[in-house]
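Today's session is about reading a structure prediction critically. Students often jump straight to the picture, but the first step is always the sequence itself: look for stretches that repeat, for charged clusters, for runs of hydrophobic residues. Only then move on to the predicted structure, which in these notes is written as discrete structure tokens rather than atom positions. Here is the chain we will use throughout the hour.
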Amino acid sequence: MKMKKIIALALAVLMITAVVACGSKADEAKEVRLTMATGGTAGTYYPFGGELAQLIDNKTGYVKANAIATGASAENIQQIGSGDAHIAIVQNDVMDYAYNATNTWTSDAVKNLATLMTLYPEVCQIIVTADSGINSVADLAGKRVSTGDIGSGVEANAIQILEAYGITVNDIQQEHLSFAASADAVKDRVIDAFFVTAGTPNTAVLELQTSRDLRVLSIDDATINALIAKYPFYAKYTITRDEYEFLSGNVNTVAVQATLICSPDMDEQVAYDIVKAIIEGKSDISHSKGAFIDAAYAVQGVSVGFHPGAEKYFKEAGVLS
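Below is the predicted structure for this chain, in token form.
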């Protein structure tokens, strides 16, 4: 009788061990590792993307996202299309160009794209030194101007804004520099101006203003209205001294939207959990752009369809019908 009890107890221990072992294997199998394509280290995408990746890790408990530095929107779209990245932050205008193979997108259309959510406005900023003699966009004709990396969203915005003033890239001495390299070039007086499309304040601009007195060029209302009419992804935006203390007054310009995207092939539950983690965990984000995260805002400015998992979340949240 005693031996039977010992055998029964041993069997029970073995069963518990098996269940625990199976549970551990199930947990390991459920873990999902994703690469998040962001942007250059001097921009907003990289630090903000790093916080989003950490938030996703913490809130889902099983999605392990790794944020990597990239050349931003155009490169990120290619990485999603090729499967080299799983999620990415891009400008909504560049995504639209890539999906429809229009405007500055010279490669084949990238249809393997889906929207997870809109994150925050990306502001078109034209930076010059206060002593440059450049007081308006029209004054950029004939000047040395960095329009961002080749094929980037920054370059697309620069071309559109310049053309709205009757200026083509042939009318300027065009340079293709990153934000950080552009700031260094202005500091060393190698170039006269540079375009930034990013959240405000931008790190490269903040660092430059410690060594040079700066000005941000305004876009007049008539040109803003013309840009919005031609390119509906733009919205009017006003930069204030809350964003850049060196400003003498408000600066009127335009903005596009930073958007989190993925492949339509992503598992529906994973997409749902990523969006849920970001929306419902936004209070854990220390970056200033976290203030824009909101379910109602996250469905604005979307021209490429939502991933089914994201769409499910937003319908449950009551912001999509």
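Discussion point for the tutorial: The CA atoms of residues 58 and 191 lie 43 Å apart.
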